[in-house]
Amino acid sequence: VRATPLSQPVVAAAPVVPSTGGADTGTVVIGVIQEPDNLNPVLWGTDVAGAVGELIYSKLLKLDSSGQFIPDLATAVPTADNGGVTADGLTYTFRLRNNARFQDGVPLTCADVKFTWEIALDQNTRTKDRQLWHSAASGGVSCTDDNTAVFRLTQPINNMLEVISLYGILPRHLLTGKDINTDAFNTRPIGSGPFQLTEWVKGDHLSLTRNADYYLGRPHLDGIVVRYMPDANALLAATQRGELDIRLGITADQLSTAGQIPGYDLVSVPIQSIFHLYLNWQRPGLGETPVRLALAHAIDKEAIARSVLRGTVTPVDVPVPPQSWAYAPPPKLAYDPALARQFLDEAGWVAGADGVRVKDGQQLKFTVLVVPEFERIQTLQIVLQQWKAIGVEAELTQNDVATWSQRMSRGEFDIGYGFYSYTYSVDNRGLLACDPNIGNRNYGHWCVSGLDQLLAQAASSTDQVARTNLLKQFQQEYVKELPVIPLFARSESESVSKKVHGYQPNPYQTQGISHFWSSWQWSKDP
Amino acid sequence: MMVGISLLLFVVIHLPPGGPEDVYLAGSSTMSSADAATIRTQLGLDDPLALQYLKWLNGTVQGDWGRSFKDGRPAREVVFERLPASVELGSTAVVAAVLVAVPSGIAMAARRSVAERFAMSLLTVLGMSAPPFWLALMLIVWLSVRLGLIPTGGTATIGAPWSLTDALQHLVGPALVVSVSYIAAWSRYVRSSVLEVLREDYVRTARAKGLPERVVLFRHCLRNSLLPLITMLGAQLPQVLSTMVAVEVVFSWPGLGRLLVTSLLGRDYPVLMGAFLLLALLVILGNLFADMAYAVVDPRIRYTADA
């Protein structure tokens, strides 16, 4: 799926609900491996919460699976042409539809939109994405009338529509005067989306039933059950037994079995996430360009993608997801151990007695920090062998997510392996900016000033064409330096029952944009 | 004693590197490290550990266990709602294990042929050494997927009204896996204990009186041989609980074991403290009951104030 650039996608009319016969068509059971942490868009911090939240809440705009921004609570996507955005790019006006109601019957108005942003930016709220919320309303949110919300910015941003598409609108009348961090609302939410939460059995499942008053039309399904099973093999077994209609997150080693389950389609959808090797520039050699290029050329990405990862990933060389509008990579980096050795030789790293390369008394010997997950370990075991062939020795250190994350943030690593999830707007400065205040995931103090400048220009540009060109130029330059080595762009494999219709997984999935964006149009054969 | 345990737990729980904010950071690219630092401060995690402990202790003695970092609900509520499922699974498994282990232990003691003894040793060694998570997966593959006898997980069919048959169908798999290793271990224990008692003088006397072997075994021997088993049951409760962690994960059983795993990985400290303390309390109570049962089974043992 290739998306159109940010400035272009505009759909003025409300999405049309296709007719599927109109029958009430049962309940769809979705199997997931993780339980939502909570169901409050300001507070949640898991992808699964964002997905379930998409069923319960509605947002001003949505990002659909073709990469188009579409109106949700708003009647149109604001543009300069329709008067929704001022020429200076500092004021966005959203006209709200007048038939949206919360699931308790109270009408949704601009006051709720304003309240949602205010509570998210309240100093006492444990807001997960505080900076992002703030970026879209740096000058405040105000209401001209019940159906007109005005967002003011102190400086223009180029990801305004995306940020607006991330967060569901909270009901002011249920949360005013409450402590939002601890209120029971967080596990018993009321939104204005197509489905209402009716039951949450902790550790087991969530039940949702149709919101018959949904403003885009009565949802076809009676309900949706989200069932979590913490073991991937149990999820596979439950699919084989027909207990699930949609099962998310099939692992690579389950692919062939999952592909043979009668009555199910195996669906694969790219996600905006890339596995990287993070190099700590403070360690011997890793701050030198030839060493990084050698490490990259020594890895046979294609072979690993085909073998242990069974085609669930796409090899990439640049920190931009392949489905992105910004993806414009230079010719592929070749798997070429001879070239890798040549890079090291020329940089003065020569093989010592034990075969490990040495320069100035320092060896190319590293540990690779990784979260113990089967596919990652298998991948790295091959990478380590291939590095050994060019005289670089490395071993694995396995840590749980919290430990991995803290050690990476503190720079307590040589090389780290993990994924970084990009947003639709591909602002990858969080990963790459030299300034630690912007590059807050710049774990290893990597910095190439030329690349940094290109990214800074792209980030401050609100002209989509200029931005696309800058990011293209950035990708051409990136592969000559490789401050961080991208390896594989991820995709997600899912089992979807042939009885389920209208399910459209979203390749732009993030915590606020999910596969469940069109759930009111789903239907299921009896 | 509980205060001592809680202090130890508090330190151990905060020992591993990484806090909840590190987990959030790893799971989201829209969150900045400044956002994470703010949340850490809001959660009170920047306070000195001693102060955090005192705050926790002060709240807990007043019945406020703190609130889950995940959804802000009271940690006590989060922990206690998982207790019934764990009690259901644990007690079924232990009762089943005892009901099977005692007769099979006696049977093993009564069998003397080399072949029979070898077969039984082999079976029990297999039972004791099969890893629970593997056994659970095998059960799911065979009983659930291939034969369709049991569901793949959970405590009840979602959306269906509660029924005993349905509940039992969901329970049998996990309970079987938890009990298997203890059936094996405890039956060997009963066997050796019975064999030991059978060598006692009063057994020889009973046999000399001409009593049938059945009466000797069950009336004279059994009660005495069960004494050590009771102590054993109390002492092995923590092990049963740890087996349950693995089984609850594979069978999607919404019990305390799974809560522990997710809270540990998510660094949800208040819930972790609550769950561990509850388990510690259960273990203490288990041992207390074992001591009391000991007195019931053996009339010679009486706990008196002036003893």
Largest sheet of chain A: 11 strands, mixed
Shape of chain A: globular
How much of the sequence lies in strands of chain B comes to: under 5%
**Radius of gyration over C-alpha positions of chain B, nearest whole angstrom:** 24 Å
Counted by DSSP, the helix tally of chain B is 13
Shape of chain B: globular
Give the N-to-C terminal Cα separation of chain B: 24 Å
Most extensive chain interface and residues per partner = A-B, 66 and 58 residues
Largest sheet of chain B: none
- Average pLDDT number of chain A: 93
Number of strands of chain A: 21
Structural class of chain B: mainly alpha
Radius of gyration of chain A: 24 Å
* Beta-strand percent range of chain A: 15-25%
Helix content of chain B: over 70%
Tell me the helix content of chain A.
10-25%
Oligomer: heterodimer
Q: How many separate helices of chain A?
A: 15
pLDDT < 50 stretches of chain B: none
On the 0-100 scale, what is the average pLDDT of chain B?
Answer: 89
Q: Span between N and C termini of chain A?
A: 31 Å
Write the layout of secondary structure elements.
The complex is a heterodimer of chains A (526) and B (307).
Chain A lengths: L26 E6 L14 H10 L4 E3 L5 E3 L19 E5 L14 H12 L8 H6 L4 E6 L2 E5 L7 H5 L7 H4 L19 E7 L3 E6 L12 E6 L3 H9 L5 E5 L4 H5 L4 E16 L9 H9 L3 H6 L6 E3 L21 H10 L3 E2 L5 E3 L2 E2 L1 E6 L3 H15 L4 E6 L2 H9 L5 E7 L7 H4 L16 H12 L3 H15 L6 E13 L2 E2 L21 E2 L2
Parallel strand pairs in A: 1-9, 1-10, 16-17, 16-18
Antiparallel strand pairs in A: 2-3, 4-6, 5-6, 7-8, 8-9, 10-19, 11-18, 11-19, 12-19, 13-14, 14-15, 20-21
Helix pairs in contact in A: 8-10, 14-15
Chain B lengths: L1 H13 L5 H8 L5 H10 L6 H13 L13 H6 L2 H28 L3 H16 L2 H15 L17 H35 L2 H8 L4 H38 L5 H11 L2 H29 L10
Helix pairs in contact in B: 1-13, 2-3, 6-9, 6-11, 7-9, 8-9, 8-11, 9-11, 10-11, 11-12, 11-13, 12-13
